[in-house]
Amino acid sequence: MNVSLRNYQALAERPDQVAAARWSWQEVSVLPDTRSDPEPAAGSEPSPEERAELERLRAEEADERAEVERLRAEVTALRSQEPAKAPRRRISWRAIVSVVLIVLGCILSAVSVIGVWAGEEVSNTDRWVATVEPLIHDPAIQNVLTDKITDQITSRINITGTVNQAAAQLNSRGLPKIASLLNQFAPQISSSVTGFIHSTVHSAISSQAMATAWVQVNTVAHQALVQVLSGQGGGAISTSNGQIVLNLGPLIAVAKEDLVAHGFKLASSIPPVTPTLALFQAKDLGKAQAYYRLVKAQRVALPILSLLLLGAGVYVARGRRRALIGVGLGLVASMLVLAIGLLIARSIYLSSVPSSTLPADAAAATWDALVHFLKVALRVVLVVGLVVAAGAFFTGPSRTAVQTRSALTSGIDWIRHFGERRGVSTGPFGLWTYAHRRALRIGAVALAALIFVFWGEPTALFVIVLVILLLVVLGLIELIGRPPVTPEVAGPAGPAGPAGHAESG
């Protein structure tokens, strides 16, 4: 027995051998009792010493049996504690499939944002005009347009040749000194006229008339851009030497009219010209056109496929609330990666455009205007991801979520009771609201989702305002909902019936 006790002590120090302890004590329980009381010889009485020894042995046996029962009870207690030990977690196929689906859905969401943006830019005239309209108000773009149009005008009117022709006419009329002075100051005259044309053109470029012409030109050019990306050419926007260029002819016409209005009649002799302004370097235009056709064809299918993958990932997961949190954070991560990619692409674009083609500040303004709505879209998806993750977390069973909900409920209850103590009660409408609060919550969330889906061009600020309004509506449902008053049981202080009736009324 002493050996068995030592084994049990070692077993108690090593819980991983509980199974061995079960076997050992099962053996103890089935061991035959080979001990028997010594019987006195037949026909003889036991001596007092033998009787004392017999009693001692019986007492030891009783003690040993009690010790065995105690050890059995302790082993039973150990057995009852075994299930409390955390079992090894095994990764199930559902967890793997859920992670794969969610990751694919988040990656595809970034591609969907790009696809929807590209499709909108080339298929929605209003969106394209809204994209390029701010460019005419950008000082860098205004300077580029001013220089381009001034060069086109001065090259057509040949100021130096006109001065020389005037000097020759003066000389033929017997005014050689004046003709000599005119030839002497011809460079200054040409520079002054060029400066006048430049300042006048800049004023025209920054005027409202030019802004209107810019919008008109780009509205007409939108279909031409679609043709370019579709592999066709022509129109106000076309491809030339691996570049996407804008026809400046309509803008020059506006500048000519403004020069004539300022008294520079010589501008009326400028013939119609169609110079171009390089907007984008397009060395890989063929690949871009192929990618455009692919994305345009799938701009509706990609978002739907992304949502299906994310929904399937949540459905397959064991912990769907945790998977929903993963979906929200995954969307946030994918949009951050897309934003970083846009920064890298912007740097590559600016370094690839020669300064002779487009100054760095004008190129930066052009890029920023082009990707403006793409940035808006990724911010919207990022905020939606944060809202989904936060909503799934704060409706969960975690300690923080429970404490937050409890604090909000306590605050709403305090406000309701504060009003009721002052005679402000929602009455039967409050009882109805409380009885249908679950349906009202679902309806509020569904209405917010429908507003978000069918809103024309949601922004990140719009999503934040929509979420705040949704939280306000949910809070009003909880505040208006008045739980029915349960009558108190009569106690030593007397029944509480009258108070209960008064409150329920």
Tell me about this structure.
- The protein has three domains: about 80 residues, no CATH class; about 200 residues, no CATH class; about 100 residues, no CATH class.
- It is elongated and about 175 Å long.
- About 75% of the residues lie in helices and about 5% in strands.
- Helix 10 packs antiparallel against helix 11 and helix 14 packs antiparallel against helix 16.
- The longest helix is centred in the first third of the chain and has 34 residues.
- The two termini are about 75 Å apart.
- Strand 1 and strand 2 form a beta hairpin.
- The chain is an all-alpha fold.
- A three-stranded antiparallel β-sheet has the order 1-2-3.
Element layout with pairings:
Layout: H1 2-13, H2 18-30, H3 48-81, H4 93-123, H5 125-132, H6 139-157, H7 159-172, H8 176-184, H9 186-205, H10 208-229, E1 237-240, E2 243-247, H11 249-261, E3 276-281, H12 285-297, H13 301-316, H14 320-352, H15 360-370, H16 372-394, H17 399-421, H18 427-435, H19 437-454, H20 460-480, H21 497-504
Antiparallel strand pairs: 1-2, 2-3
The string of secondary-structure elements, in order, is HHHHHHHHHHEEHEHHHHHHHHHH
Low-confidence stretches: 1-5, 8-38, 489-505
Percentage of residues in helical conformation: over 70%
- Total beta strands: 3
SS-based class = mainly alpha
Question: Biggest sheet, open or closed, and with what strands and sense?
Answer: 3 strands, antiparallel
Keywords summarizing the entry:
505 residues, mainly alpha, three-stranded antiparallel β-sheet, 3% strand, elongated, disordered N terminus, disordered C terminus
